[in-house]
From TrEMBL:
Coiled-coil segments: none
Taxonomy, superkingdom: Bacteria
Every FecR protein domain range: 190-283
Protein name: FecR family protein
Keyword set, alphabetical order: Membrane, Transmembrane, Transmembrane helix
Domain Protein FecR C-terminal: 323-391
Organism: Olivibacter oleidegradans
Region forming the signal peptide: none
InterPro entries, sorted: FecR, FecR_C, Ferrdict_sens_TM
Transmembrane segments: 89-107
Amino acid sequence: MRFKEERFITLLKAYMNEQISESEFEELVNYIQQADTAQLNEQLLDLFDKAWQQANQQLPIKLDAERVLHGIMTSPQLNTQARRKKPKVWLIAASIAALVCLATLLVRQYTPLPLQAAKEKLLTQEEDTLTSDRREVMLTLSDGHQIPVNALSEGVQTFQSGTHVKRDQNQLIYTEDQDTKAHPSPALHTITTPIGMDYKLTLPDGTRVQLNAGSSLTFPVAFGRQERKVELQGEAYFDVAKHPNQAFLVQAKGTDIHVLGTAFNVSAYQEDPYVVTTLLTGSLKVQSKILRPGQQALSNETGHPIVIREVDPDEIMAWARGYFVFDQDDIKQVMNTLARWYDIEVVYEGNLKGKTFGGTLSRYTDFRQLLHAIEQTGSVKFTITGRRVTVSP
């Protein structure tokens, strides 16, 4: 018989809310028994996508169904006897549980919002949430004076060094006039982003930068004629303005990155073992190694050889579009990334070796919902106490 989509979704909601009756569960199981496993998984994902398309939204949480299923089916919480009795029913039911929890629109946890609206909501939540007490983006002048960026009035500001800076909504734009080009100032400015907030700026040469959370960029207010040098801590995306006679140099944790005009991403957080440089377009040199678009270099301060590998640039740049993307990453690396954004302390208990997570998550999803979604993969469990999150097998 034909199983209508509306009825399917109704049963899924009841199942996940633990409000499904015995007869409804039998109805769901009957369909599961008759369906092809791969086809049903594909149908589930298609239903979720359609629901979000109707709301003109992008799916906030996406996971690889097979990986989710593997995580659940290898979880010790599953009743092994029940698995033996009805292997297919339990296999698909586990898949349904994971997929429905992760597509939280269909259950109860997520109200769809455009990314910008979701971001604004996240930044104005009640004080008892994990995302409260967020600090401001700060501008540090060459004399050490610090100014909250939001304290600058919109329009052009002129500092003592003769620097012209324009605050335009959520970004700063530096410009050079003929005098500063002829007599460049040695003054340095630093933009620092707090935990849980990124920021955009345009450097004096026209290079566009987007700083990720917990990062800082130090740069001259007017570049010299020979070289454009900046210093990065944390992570940033660069779209470098082309000036053939002026090389652009990024210094990050002992790694020198040389470019002329290109787009690339650098991640150089202090707690990470490597400086990770990903080239999107053009070409650049990391120390002595030349990268091609789609390649990533891993370097560090210990003098070990630079490792170059092929990557998906879209995944690397997901943070700049408002998403986390994990590709079966170690759970500790996942939690490090989340901690930078949500301003939390992470504690680990038990043996977490081999515990991984893969999926795409909106950076503006409520943190408790996000943790709940990760838990549904069966990989780890979370205990939240204030701003402390304990991770256990």
